[in-house]
Design a protein that fits this description.
Layout lengths: L11 E5 L1 H10 L5 E6 L9 H7 L3 E6 L2 H11 L6 E3 L14 H11 L6 E6 L8 H8 L5 E6 L11 E5 L6 H7 L2 E2 L3
Parallel strand pairs: 1-2, 2-3, 3-4, 5-6, 5-8, 6-7
Helix pairs in contact: 4-6
Length: about 180
Amino acid sequence: REIRGMDFAPDACYAHFWRSALAAARALPKGPKVFVGCGESALKTVFAGEAKAMLPRIGGVVSVSGKNKADCQALYGVPEDMIQVLPNGVDGGTFHPLSPQQRQAQRQRLGIGPEELAVVLVGWFNQRKGVKRVEAALQGLEGVKALYIGSGDMTPEGDNIAFCGRVEHDQMPLYLGAADVFVLP
C-alpha cells in the first residue's frame, strides 16, 4: 500500500530478504528492479514458485555466503551472474574495544564483577538463534554472567543474567565491549 501510494516512481528498490522482495515486486510499477538482500536464514520453499515468476523483476541479489548463493540458485532459479556474495562485516569505527575505564564502568553498571566472565548473545530469542542452548550451557556456572540482547518468544531465564532485553543501536558497542565472549550457536 505504501509503495502504490507514492507520488513518484523509484529507479530501484532494495528489499531485505525474499519475502519483502516479492511483495515489492508485486507492488511496484513494471519499471524499477528489486534488489534482494538475502541473509543467513534458510530459504523458504513456499516462495520458490513466486520467486521464479518474479525473476524478471529482480535486479540482483546480495548474499552473505556461498551456501546462501547456491541456495538462491537451486531453489529460486537466480542466475549466478545476478548474485554477489558479500559476507556480513563489522564497522571497526563503531565496534572496537572499549577503553579500560569505559569497560569497567559498563560492567559495574551491569553488575558484572571484575573477575566474572561475561557472555553475550545478540539476536532473536528463538530456536534458530539458540538462546535456550546458551541458557542451558550457562546454567549453574559460578563466576559467569549472561547478556542477552534482543527479544522473542523464548525469553532466557536464570540467576546469572546481568541483562536481558533490547538495546538501542548506539548503545550496542557498550554492551558488546563489556562482554568477554560473544556466542551465537
